[in-house]
Amino acid sequence: MSAFTRLWQRAPLWRTALITTGVCGVFSVLFPAPWLVNRLPYYGSLTSKVSHMLGRSTPGTDAQSNAEDEGRRMVSQPPMDAQFEGVIPFAGRQLPLPAGKWHPVLNYQDDVEHGEVLTSIFVRSEQGAVTGFLIAQATTQSLPAAATEQLEAQCHSTFNFTIGDLPQDGSRTECWMTSPIKVVNNLFMTSNQALQGMLSSPLFIPPALQRLGMMGFQLPPVLVDAGWTHIEKSTSGKGVDFATIHTLISPAIPGPKAVVPGSPENWSHAGMADAPVVADFVGRTDTWLKGWLPYLRKSYKGELDSTEPLPRAAAADPGFHG
Prior knowledge:
Distance between the termini: 100 Å
Keywords: Membrane, Transmembrane, Transmembrane helix
Shape: elongated
Mean pLDDT: 84
Number of helices: 10
Radius of gyration: 28 Å
Helix content: 25-40%
Number of domains: 2
Strand content: 25-35%
Number of strands: 11
Low-confidence stretches: 37-43, 55-71
């Protein structure tokens, strides 16, 4: 019998300490402490190799990845006392604003998942009541064509009030729509699932609505989205570029109660047939959007004269804008 065997049998405390040390050593490799990884490079290299063999990433790697992702997502809240009218620069192109004074709410740039996409949100109000909510998105760097599938799906939902598009020519796609948006607990809700995906994004829409709520702005119970999307192949030959503008227009008359005509169920594709006043507002919104399309197309190409005011007849949407 060797000395080690005799010691193993006669020293239970030593035996327990040895087993505990071995188990702790294994756990320290499988679940490394971040502070120890930073102080001992060799230890960090060893634990990284083990984690890679097990198909996991190390805490240090996760932290670095999260930090990089956060660095690529930029959110800013411009001063809301600023106001804009007419044509303004946006994402290397132009953005024509409907009639009225528009205030910036939030800017968001994301170059983590889909190339580079800039989102800007503006609000128009009267006596504290929101009369318009504008969401502008556009690429500042091309992205894969697959990333725009949901944009096209927004236009072709059967829950929209109206739908329109241009014939596809293989190089570009353009569509437009009007769609009902309900406001529930200061959140936007719609049966158009593709559109709901954008409106529910925790990265920009809810924070913008939260900011409006904190500043005392009153949202109407219903909005009508006049949306336009333009997608075309990148001039570089790789991926696509796009711009999409959603102008959410309030049918309410500004005031303490922001009364909306018709009943809640009338503000749907099927329900508006039972409420002429709802059908009238939707029809006027659709007519306005079709007249606004030439200006949206020119803005995509940067062909609008920003020194001249937009024609009042074209810029005046059916909502209240002073």
